[in-house]
Amino acid sequence: MVDRLSFYLKRSNWFYSLNPITKLTFIFCLLVTIYSSRNIYPPIYFSILVIILSFLAQIGKEFLKSVMKIALPTAGILFLMQSFMMQLGNSSIFEFFIFKLTIENISYAGISAARIFLMLISFLLFILSTHPSELMTDLTRRGLPGQLAYVVVSTLQILPQMQAKAAAIISAQRSRGLDTEGSLAKRVGALAPLVGPLVFGSLVEVEERAIAIEARAFMSTLKKTSLKEVADTRLDKTLRIALIAITVGAFLWR
After folding, report:
1. Consecutive H or E run containing 48
2. Which residue, among 104, 107, 102, 105, has the nearest Cα to 82 in the 3D structure?
3. Distance CA 154, CA 159 (A)
4. What is the dihedral angle through the alpha carbons of 152, 155, 157, 161, rounded to the nearest 10 degrees?
5. Domain extents for the chain?
6. Over 90: is that where the pLDDT of 153 sits?
7. 169 close to 194: Cβ distance less than 8 angstroms
8. What is the mean pLDDT of residues 67-93?
9. Which of 8, 54, 69, 155 could cross-link with 3 by S-S, CB 3.0 to 4.6 Å?
């Protein structure tokens, strides 16, 4: 089951039962570890670990689709750009005009791309397995100002909301006879009737959200309660302490 307003996939297993902060701590520790290392192997090993976790969380198929659409193309483009545009070392393999491919460029680009790839797939796993409302509830319960918690959650919801609205607009325009398929020229010509409603509709949603926030006393300084409590078990606390301890230990050992 996919949440229309987020990328969240509803499942019931041990990974989903973890507190959102525990998952964020895991991601933070991964990023600290790989950015403190100048070797390409840690990002590769941790990427494999994240993929294994996605299957253990029973969202492996959907996760890999998102990786192929988002993380892999982004990391690949970054690798190509840095391989040819950076000016590192003199071990030239290929030169053309201003482009120069060296062994040092490939090494640096490989490490950078592997880091970005791991960062993207880690956050993909997080947003696929964590409902935004749970994250916001837990953040506000821990003392984070409601305004900041709302900004964080809204950021996670922007892309799926835009996708849902774009799909609805495309269906509506097709029902009116708009040709959105065929040659490249026809597709480009169909952009204007699609982009206009999408942009103006998003602006209207911003105003509606502002009214809804004001109506719910979002800016009130009184203590707020939630109908749904996000569990923070002893296992979560133990895992967070262990992850931080392992990360600090690995950093000091290096």
Report:
1. helix 41-56
2. 105
3. 10
4. 160
5. 20-130+243-253, 137-215
6. no
7. yes
8. 82
9. 8
* First-to-final CA distance of the chain: 43
**Hey, CA dihedral for 34, 36, 40, 45, is it positive or negative?**
negative
Q: Which of 161, 155, 225, 165 is nearest to 197 (CA)?
A: 165
- Output the CA torsion sign for 136, 140, 146, 151: negative
What residues have CB less than 8 Å from 190, skipping those under 6 apart? Answer: 173, 178, 179, 180
The residue assigned the tokens 């509830």 is: 137
> Which residues have a Cβ under 8 Å from the Cβ of 17 and sit 6 or more positions away?
231
Interatomic CA distance for residues 117 and 78, integer angstroms? 10
* Global pTM value: 0.77
Q: Which residue has the tokens 């990974």?
A: 15
How many other C-beta atoms lie within 10 A of the C-beta of residue 31?
Answer: 18
**Model pLDDT, residue 2:** 47
